[in-house]
Amino acid sequence: MNKKGTSIKNADYEGFIKNLLADGRISFSIDDMATLEVEQATLSKALYRLVQKGAIYPIRRGYYAVITPEYMRRGIVPETLFVDDLMGYLNREYYVSLLSAAALHGAGHQQPMSFFITHNGNPLRNIVSDKHHINFINRKVWGKDVVMPMKTKSGYLHVSTPEATLFDLIENQRILGLSRIYEVILELSEGVKTNRLRSTAQLFSVATRQRLGYILDTLEINATVIEKSLQKETLHPVYLSLMAEKKGELDSKWQIIVNDKISTDI
Asked: What is the pLDDT of residue 153?
């Protein structure tokens, strides 16, 4: 961006957006616009004008979504169309997780208000605006069995498998609250594959497996695979809920102190 004096009119901003869309992308960073070779101040003015025209909007500082005719009325582009590009820009490995992953697998009556992304590296600040609520969950490592590709209109997403999503929901109950996820677990379990559940179980803590096993049992879903994964482990009593009052009866099979009531409306 070193050609001083290049005006907003002379730089082909609309051409840039058209080329972006032709490449199957729907979002971009300021760095992507380096080919226009304009000064930062000029570029900032141009971006402001495009935002005012309703052609683009900022997702986060320095990163924008293009509002195509399909989404003009809503004025919002679905997160699934730009998340892969965004996480590449942020230089993070990631997967769509929790309620967002469950929704992509067909579980959950309502679209979650927030979009959940698990990523590696340093923690990221959540994106909270009038258009998007994106919750970033930091996790240092995860196994290859946790993630699967999912095709979208703009490419592919990394999404947690139905099996990994079950464990993730339990592991992140402080974010969601257990009462919110019981029905999701019930619906999500319909797409679970026994062999994948077996390999995935080993990637999560004993306490998480105990909690999920108890919940599946209570919901009358086969939890044999999880039970077998615990056979060689030493089980210690753990509370079902990490937020509820620390009292309740002990379930001897799963060594779960039942301090939360499991109920669904399904």
From this structure: 85
